[in-house]
Amino acid sequence: MRRSVSRKTGQTNSTDATDLFRSASSKASSKEMERIDNLFYSYANKSSGMIDPEGIESLCSDIEVSHTDVRILMLAWKMKAEKQGYFTLEEWRRGLKALRADTVNKLKKALPDLEKEVKRPTNFQDFYAFAFRYCLTEEKQKSVDIESVCELLGLVLGSQYRAQVDYLIEYLKIQSDYKVINMDQWMGFYRFCNEISFPDFNNYDPNLAWPLVLDNFVEWMKAKQT
Amino acid sequence: MVQRRIIEFNEGWEYIQKGIRKLKRILEGLREPPFSSEEYMALHITIYNMCSQNIPNNNSGTSGFNEFGLACFRDLVYDALKHKAKDAVIDEREREQVDRALLANVLDIFVVMGKGESSYYSRISTNWVLKDPCPDYMRKAEECLKKERDRVSRYLQSNGEEKLVEKVQHELLVVYATQLLEKEQSGCGALFRGNKVDDLSRMLGTVADAFRQHVTAAGTVLVQQAEDAAKNKQEQKVVKVLVYISDKDLFAEFYRKKLARRLLFDRSRTLARKSQTGFEKYLRYNKNAHAGIDLSVTVLATGFWPSYKSSDLNRPSQMIKCIEMIKCVEVFKRFYETKTKHRKLSWIYSLGQCHINAKFELKNIELIISTYQAAILDLFNASNRLSYSQVITQLNLTHDDLVRLLHSLSILDYKILIKEPDTKSISRSDYFELNSKFTDRMRGSRSLSHHRKVLGHQQLVSECVELLGRMFKPAVKAFKKRIEGLISQDYLGRYPENPNTFKCLA
């Protein structure tokens, strides 16, 4: 580890204590980073230098979380991971450093707090949008197929808005107007669950700019209810 | 009218001076015989003529001269003369020796003076309005009116009184009504505020008419303005709505259809009256051409009206089995052929209306229903109970149409037909029977709203909105689809703070 030795002329106000602290913390952080890196390499693919789906699977079993569990998605969000199923070193470092986890155990213990953090409204919208982007595997891909969307909806919104999500998933599967869902519609789903009273939909106004798929959904629900 | 001789100034002035000198002597108490009536008249006429001669001989240097002259005459001469005239009139009664002609002339003068009054008064009232606070003006006005009334009443010109009083009133009051009323310190408002009962009563008493006139005039203007504003507002609202409607051609189509219905069914207008009277004539002269029932037909020119589903001319009986109706169609067809050989008639039964006298258990009721509904009901003249399939085969309508018609007859508020089973929708296995117990009192609470006009209107509005909502849903959907397209192509994006607003991205 290198210490920056250059000092500006005239500066003599650094005390020994802060110097010591700085050096200690930087030492510690360098140690931490080392451990994080080591952890990375324990899961990473030797040839690609990234953690691939296989590596993620073994990570999951180590932290005792199913790889379909939403918490992995949350981890990916924390890492700002770009490609689904893969973690780069940079992403790994970013995520684990933020979680202050440099061992598997610490990572496991950090998950409940991560969940809480994600569920905070300010973060959740960001996480929700991230979840969709994470599915755009091809370059220039803008929409996600209905099947995946349904799964994703269940994953990210299911715990909070079970009833709406279940019906929405049912509708999306039987309707034939849309074969894929784009980001705007995806965000519309969240706004819908968040704002519209259920199951009466009393405050839903189709004359506002809701995506058409939701207008159709509400119509379908209302027809079911009579 | 006799041409007046032009009086030269010098000549006239000399004459007047003589009169003035004489008057002075009278006023100074010197021994001077009083003016005779002729002398008064001559003086007055001279002065008047001189003042009102045509240019350049009218010696009125200013326009006020004329009035001034009159005023002088009145103040100096007229007032003095009043008593004499009055006495003369009394004398006339008593002694009947007074020269009637002279008296008549004098009286005429007074009437003419009345004309002079208005200009006189208009002048003084101008001054008064400017100077006087309202109550004072009113008092003066009142006095004037009183004086005039007295004067006139003395001279027995009863019609003159009306005219005179009216004139004075007009000059004094009407012309200045607004000003008077609005005079800040002393105008109407102030009087009301100050509870000045006397002043008010004086004012209101005399001003009543003028006030009414003024208020009516001002009110009419305001109403006109309000109507214009309302019309403008309506127009603005309509334009606003039109702007939001993206599929204007779709809207136009809907509107055309609605307008057509309105024109056809609005009984206050009668379209094609000429051709209807033509048809009536034809029926009168062709005794055997009677359909047996009253028929009125409106013929629409194809190009101008929206297109409707119509039935084939050759086989009207396919749609309508009712004999009377078939006969009607035949009769009119024959009549129409006498008028023109080159036109083809297509019958649009969906727009038709029938008045049917239906015999129910409780009483006979006249039903006003559509042609198709009437055709359905007519089937029940032959049989008591019919199944759905029987109805549809006899009438040859489409399933959708028939469902709608049967729905209107058996499920809505007025249940003319009883449906078995009593479900809320028409199915192919249903049976129908005429509801003999039908009465016009069988209305749901909804229809009683005609007694409560306000409720009815609100209901109407909400129903309209609902209908419109249903109609324009397709337009809104199309609009949204386009928005979606633009979003997915990244031309449009939503504002995160307000997802109902979009911004242009491209």
Automatic annotation (TrEMBL), chain A:
One of its GO terms (molecular function) is ubiquitin conjugating enzyme binding. InterPro entries: DCN-prot (IPR014764), DCN1-like_PONY (IPR042460), EF-hand-dom_pair (IPR011992), PONY_dom (IPR005176). GO terms for biological process: protein neddylation. Pfam families: Cullin_binding. Residues 7-17 have a biased composition (Polar residues). Residues 31-222 form the DCUN1 domain. Residues 1-24 are annotated as: Disordered. One of its GO terms (cellular component) is ubiquitin ligase complex. It comes from the Eukaryota. Neddylation of cullins play an essential role in the regulation of SCF-type complexes activity. This is Defective in cullin neddylation protein. It comes from Citrus unshiu. The lineage of its organism: Eukaryota, Viridiplantae, Streptophyta, Embryophyta, Tracheophyta.
TrEMBL record, chain B:
Coiled coil: none annotated. SMART domains: CULLIN, Cullin_Nedd8. Transmembrane segments: none annotated. GO terms for molecular function: ubiquitin protein ligase binding. It holds the Pfam family Cullin_Nedd8. PROSITE patterns: CULLIN_2 (PS50069). It comes from the Eukaryota. One of its GO terms (biological process) is ubiquitin-dependent protein catabolic process. InterPro entries: Cullin, Cullin-like_AB, Cullin_homology, Cullin_homology_sf, Cullin_N, Cullin_neddylation_domain, Cullin_repeat-like_dom_sf, WH-like_DNA-bd_sf. Belongs to the cullin family. It comes from Citrus clementina. PANTHER family: CULLIN. This is Cullin family profile domain-containing protein. Residues 168-410 form the Cullin family profile domain.
